[in-house]
Write a structure and sequence with these properties.
Radius of gyration: 32 Å
Number of helices: 2
Oligomer: single chain
Strand content: 15-25%
Strand order of the largest sheet: 1-2-3
Length: 130
C-alpha cells in the first residue's frame, strides 16, 4: 500500500486507487457529517476535560445497493452518536442480612447518643473562661 503525498490517494497491492476517507466525509450530506463530527468531538473533549471521565464518539457508515439488479450505485447513510461523560454522585450503602440497602452498617452496634442541652448547669462554656 502506498500513499501519493500530493493527492493523498492510496494505492493498494492490486493497483486500485482508494479515495481518502476524509474526502468522502467532507462531501457526505453536503458537509453536514464533517460538521457534526467536528462539533461532537469538540463537545466530547470539553466534557471529558470538565468531568474527568471518558466518553465516546461513534460513527457508523451503512452502505447498501441502490437497486436490486444494478451495479455501480449505492446508498450511503451515516449515524453519529456522542456519549458524553456524566457527573453523577454516588452514595455508600451497607447490605443487611435480607439484602436490603441501609445507610447504617448492620454489623456495627449503634451508640445510645442523645443531644445535651447547651444550658445544662453541669457544663461550663469554654468560651466564657477566656
Amino acid at each position: 500500500m502506498t500513499v501519493d503525498t500530493t493527492t493523498g490517494e492510496i494505492t493498494d497491492d492490486t493497483a486500485r486507487r482508494i479515495r481518502p476517507f476524509a474526502d468522502w466525509m467532507a462531501e457526505q450530506r453536503n458537509g453536514a457529517l464533517h460538521t457534526e463530527l467536528s462539533q461532537g468531538l469538540n463537545d466530547l473533549v470539553d466534557a471529558v476535560n470538565g468531568v474527568g471521565r471518558s466518553g465516546t464518539l461513534t460513527l457508523v457508515v451503512k452502505v447498501q445497493p441502490a437497486s436490486k439488479h444494478g451495479e455501480g450505485s449505492v446508498l450511503v447513510a451515516d449515524d453519529v452518536k456522542v456519549k458524553l461523560p456524566q457527573e453523577r454522585g454516588e452514595a455508600l450503602y451497607f447490605v443487611d442480612a435480607d439484602a436490603n440497602l441501609s445507610r447504617q452498617n448492620p454489623a456495627q452496634p449503634s451508640l445510645p447518643l442523645r443531644e445535651v442541652p447547651r444550658t445544662a448547669p453541669e457544663l461550663k462554656d469554654v468560651t466564657d473562661a477566656q
